[in-house]
Amino acid sequence: MRAAEEMLEERDGAVATGSRTGFTGWRRSDLGVLLGFLALAVLVMIRLWLDPNGRVLDGNDDDHGIFLFMLAHGERVVFDGAPLFFESHLNAPVGVNMMANTAILALSLPLAPVTHFLGGGVSVAIILTTGLAGTAAAWYWLFARHLVASRRAALIGALWCGFGPTMISHANGHLNFVSQYLVPLIVWQVLRLREPGRAVRGGIVLGLLIVLQIFINEETLLFTALTLGVFVLAYAIMRRAEARATARRFLAGLGVATGTTLALAGYPLWYQFLAPGNYHGQPFAPTEFVTDLLALGAYPRQSVAGIDAVAERLSVSATEDNTFFGPVGLLMIAVALRMLWRSAAARSAAIAGLVLLIASLGPRLQAAGVKTAIPLPFALVSHIPVIDLVSVTRFAMVPATIAGILLALAADRIGEYPRVRRRRFWVGMTLALVPLFPTPAPVVQGDPLPEFLTAGLWRRYVPDGRTLVPVPLPEVTTGRTAQRWATLENLDFAVPRGYFMGPADPPHDRTGSWRAPVRPTTELLNRVQATGQRPALTEADRALIRADLVYWRAAVVMLVPEAPNVAALRATLTGALGEPRLVGGVEIWDVRSLVDHPAE
Q: Which stretches are transmembrane (predicted)?
């Protein structure tokens, strides 16, 4: 009995530090595993790969569009010398603070040649595919080198962390959340800071990883930091002597990492929070997007056992199935925790996951789509700066990953159990994992770009310093086509408005908003698009439209042919600007003289 306890203590410390030697050597089969991850990622994204520039992810076409914008910005930085942290060709003439958005600069800049020569849609497909496969591969490496001795255990953990319901859900448009391959490396480096002689070298390496993660996704970094903070605190309470012995060098390493991060990312972070275009908070209340309690045991919509109607009731959107472990999966997570309960490291990880899971439930409990009056702890911290920038349900991404870690550790330890227990365990794992096998991401065909854009005919009408105004204007939900067209052309021309994050109405209201401040013309055209009713324009209405065109420095107005209620939109524009002309497959209104001589 004493020998078993000593073995558990040894494993406990190894898991907590990430220092355990895993496989005795890498085999050709491990390369096969990595290639299998890539093949599975291609399978998930296969429908997009068939026509990456022509198709749009149906699960979240809005966010597909905003990341096309991020990639177009990266292309402009590399090929046009555009400012790194500011984009002037969307939301003209004000522009967009790119650090205040998820600019994914660590991805968009290396892929700028792909975006330039092959199109932003190809870059989207590459990022989503390599994000899924790369995240699984990174976790497989961490499990294999430091946490488990069984290849099967490492494979289970990597598949769950890289292809579990959370990751597959975010692959419907969230390029930033799918690209989590740095997270295992950050976790590993943090845990190694307690080793002698690691403070400076380990701190610098950790700082560099943090900087890279900042330029992929800051929310993921925040979740990782909160999780590690709770884990370290819980482990230190359970292993006080060990914590006291290593605290000085651990804190020293964190200090070096912090200094490295601030030295390299201090200015970008200042630009994010203090430069023009900054904002605070979100355009929605924390109570709107929370984790439903019943979602823990349901199946995700994009799985072989998923039922769309059930998932839609229990989830915010197709990109936010952040739990959805399935009933047997939830049971096996509990079984794994019971098996590992004597490990302080496993208990600490479970505590961290539970804390973040409770946070994801929001200020009040929601179950089966019904918001109850039961208060939860998140109400106490929901308005803290930085926390108020997070979509609350995404805190559940943490327990989803920790579940994969616990399952891998349990699969590694099950070999110590009697044969009957082993058989039951593997039956349970099979019943848990098979129903969660992912299905290909759904797509829809996007509106084809007109010759007016693809052949560069717009250049005859839009000189430098002026804008092309598509109607419907680029907006979240109502102007998806216009933003997609502009970004697939790599923002070679400037357009007003757009889908991005910025202040709602500066300087009076700096609350975060998904669109530019309201203007009379956009509100008018949005009503026409929604109702299909042509308004009776007054001279005052025409004056407001002309004033907005002057504000936008418009050169030409272009009507999107496939827009909803396009006839009413055409009639409204004709009533305000005169008859259009047909050029390159679209109707346009040349307003250069109107803007050059607004008084006339």
A: 31-50, 117-142, 199-216, 222-238, 250-270, 324-341, 348-366, 386-411, 423-441
Compute the distance between CA of residue 500 and CA of residue 502 in angstroms, rounded to an integer: 7
pTM for the whole thing? 0.94
Amino acid at site 346: A
The CA–CA distances, whole Å, from 413 to 211, 326, 345, 434, 495 equal 36, 23, 14, 21, 58
Distance (Å, whole) CA 104 – CA 86 = 13
Q: What is the pLDDT of residue 332?
A: 98
Phi, psi (rounded to 5 degrees) for 375: -75, 150
Cis amide linkage into residue 268, ω under 30° from 0:
no
The DSSP line for 183-201 is HHHHHHHHHHTTSTT-HHH
Residues 6+ apart with CB under 8 A from 535: 524, 527, 528, 541, 572
Q: Which residues is 375 bridged to in the sheet? A: 364
pLDDT tens for 503-551 read 999 999 999 999 999 999 999 999 999 999 999 999 999 999 999 999 9
For residues 397 and 379, what is the distance between their CA atoms, to the nearest angstrom? Answer: 19
> Does residue 387 contact residue 295 with C-beta atoms inside 8 Å?
no
**409 residue type, one letter:** L
Query: Which stretches of 313-464 are assigned E, i.e. beta strand?
Result: 364-367, 370-375, 443-445
**Cα 585 from chain centroid (whole Å):** 35
3-state secondary structure 42-92: HHHCHHHHCCCCCEEECCCHHHHHHHHHHHHHHHHHHHHCCCCCEECCCCC
d(CA 47, CA 58): 11
Helix axis angle, 151-163 relative to 120-142, nearest 10°? 150
Q: DSSP of 495-533, one letter per residue?
A: -S--S--EEEETTTEEEEESSPPP-HHHHHHHHHHHH-P
Match 């047909």 to its residue by tokens. 582
Q: Which sign, positive or negative, has the C-alpha torsion 452, 453, 458, 462?
A: positive
Domain ranges of the chain: 16-436, 451-596
Is residue 577 within 8 Å of 118, Cβ to Cβ? no
- pLDDT 10s digits, 573-593: 999 999 999 999 999 999 998
pLDDT of residue 19 exceeding 60, the answer is no
Whether 452 and 585 have beta carbons less than 8 Å apart is answered as: yes
In one letter, which amino acid is 38?
A: L
CA 329 to centroid of chain Cα atoms:
24
Q: Using CA atoms, how far apart are residues 562 and 481, in angstroms rounded to an integer?
A: 9
Decide: residue 483, CB within 10 A, 0-12 exposed, 13-18 middle, 19+ buried. Answer: buried
Instruction: Dump pLDDT digits (tens) for 398-450.
Output: 999 999 999 999 999 999 999 999 999 999 999 999 999 999 999 999 999 99
Expressed in angstroms, the distance from the first to the final Cα of the chain is 95
Give CA–CA dist 58/301, Å, rounded: 13
